[in-house]
Amino acid sequence: xxxxxxxxxxxxxxxxxxxxxxxxxxxxxxxxxVGYWSFDQGDxxxxxxxxxxxxxxxxxxxxVKGQSGEALEFNxxxxxxxxxxxxxxxxxxxxxxxxxxKLIKVNGWTAVIEKGVHENWSYGxxxxxxxxxxxxxxxxxxxxxxxxxxxxxxxxxxYHIAGTYDGxxxxxxxxxxxxxxxxxxxPLHPTDGLPLAIxxxxxGDGENFFNGFIDEVTLWDSVVSIDKMKQPLKTTSVIPLHxxxxxxxxxxxxxx
Length: 256
Prior knowledge:
Layout: H1 4-23, E1 33-37, E2 55-58, E3 62-65, E4 70-75, E5 80-83, E6 95-103, E7 110-117, E8 120-127, E9 132-139, E10 143-152, E11 158-165, E12 169-174, E13 177-183, E14 196-198, E15 211-220, H2 226-230, H3 244-252
Antiparallel strand pairs: 1-15, 2-5, 3-4, 4-15, 5-14, 6-11, 6-15, 7-8, 7-14, 8-9, 9-10, 11-12, 12-13
Helix pairs in contact: 1-3
């Protein structure tokens, strides 16, 4: 007699395994996403990661059409966003940070995104007066490593900017291409008490303001790909590899 129940169970197990393997691409654990500010909420700045690093709007940046959804337009004199200091945005052995930006005009030496200030650095992006972009990280003891790129940020164009630090090398990326790198080592200086500032230098009352648009800021406590930075929430349905053995064990333990 054909044992349909037993055969059916095997088919279900095989099909389930094939489905799981098709979903498992890499280990996309979201514990490394420590901040994601999309600026899609108008007059508030919510952190869409699980860390609730919500921002406070300073000045009167405008909510405008962005690279994805809404963005904030900063006036170059008083507009910025302050994200209060805490360990999740400060204590890093590795780091990835990214944003979409569109410059209106060069505003002298400009901090685009920064955690820390002169002689109390941590990480960030800035524009030189000639509109070339740089990314920096500072190790404990304020050992500054600054990747000074030659890439000019031209007005009225969207650029995806990113910085990565793996504990040995800091790299600046523009539109997915590595533009500068510099050797560095050790955990980052935490800059206790200073906010993460978007649109200016984070001294508490702001300075060196950015004149332009900023959108889709992401912050990670590991080195991640540019694609992942651009789509930080896309992989929520992907099953991490380290869970596969447990899931497969549960499937096999089901009654046959």
